[in-house]
Amino acid sequence: MSDPFESAIEKTLPLLESIRDGVKPPPRASQEALEELKRVAGAVREEQQSALPSPSASTKAEAPTTKVAPEPPKAEPVLSRAVEPWTFEMLRKAILACEKCPHLVRTRTQVVFGVGKPDADLMFVGEAPGADEDEQGEPFVGKAGQLLTKIIQAMGFGREDVFIANVLKCRPDMPVGESGNRKPRPNEMATCLPWLREQIRLVRPKVLVALGATAVEGLVGTTSPLRDLRGRWLEFEGIPLMVTYHPAYLLRNQSISEKRKVWEDMMLVLERLNIPISEKQRRFFTTSAS
């Protein structure tokens, strides 16, 4: 320890004693001694640091004699498939337990998830469950559903070969005293759309078919008249989307010409799926059909 440092410490002893004895304020001379101690201690610290070799000098001196092991070659990054946020069964359980629309939860019998092949190439999307669907928990099981099944079979599929779902998973509630079915509201479809979007992402169909104007509105947001959209290819998140009439429309309008329009739409779907169309199929709902 240097002499100036010892001298500064000795001068601060009265300050320490005054603090110990509770003298307030401490003697001024002792306070000045403390300031001197700080100054001397700082000078000693600077002196000690200047005596140490600088990091750069040490590095330069050691560099010629230091052997650095070569780094191992870097491995090429391995591309791995992203983890799916949902499995099909996880999604089913989540949708069946959904309570995002309290007014629909109060009146529904059960949630209608969807039915069919989980990895189908073709997926049909309707608007919402009706009374029969709400009771059975399966989409398109009423009269319109029976007609849809016939259309699917005429295309060469079974219901088990395609996937069928709705934009809305719960039956829309009806005013007290009223019967029938009402159109889903835009906010209801917007609330339920993430569930349908996740279904589509998991099924990964090659083609989507929107059954009716409400289904088109729920999927892509357009409210254009169906007569202007029918038979046209739209797109939903990169997937070709065919728009056609809802089977319920064909139950109300039994004309051959309207049935033929729907069938022409289905032939466009078959062509997009690269499925051969027989001559018999091409003649369906024409005056020359046998």
Compact overview of the structure:
By secondary structure, the protein is an alpha/beta fold. It has helices at 3-21, 28-51, 55-62, 88-96, 102-107, 131-136, 143-154, 186-203, 213-220, 226-229, 247-252, 256-272, 279-282, and strands at 115-116, 122-126, 163-166, 207-211, 233-236, 239-244.
Present the secondary structure layout.
Blueprint lengths: L2 H19 L6 H24 L3 H8 L25 H9 L5 H6 L7 E2 L5 E5 L4 H6 L6 H12 L8 E4 L19 H18 L3 E5 L1 H8 L5 H4 L3 E4 L2 E6 L2 H6 L3 H17 L6 H4 L8
Parallel strand pairs: 2-3, 2-4, 4-6
Antiparallel strand pairs: 1-3, 5-6
CATH class of the largest domain: Alpha Beta
Apparent shape = elongated
What are the low-pLDDT stretches, counting only 5+ consecutive residues below 50? 51-83
Distance between the termini: 118 Å
Question: How would you describe this protein?
Answer:
With 290 residues, the chain is an alpha/beta fold. The chain has two domains: 3-50; 88-282, Uracil-DNA Glycosylase, subunit E (3-Layer(aba) Sandwich), CATH 3.40.470. It is 49% helix and 9% strand. The chain has 13 helices and six strands. A six-stranded mixed sheet has the order 1-3-2-4-6-5, sandwiched between helices. Helix 1 runs antiparallel to helix 2 (28-51). The model is unreliable at 51-83 (pLDDT under 50).
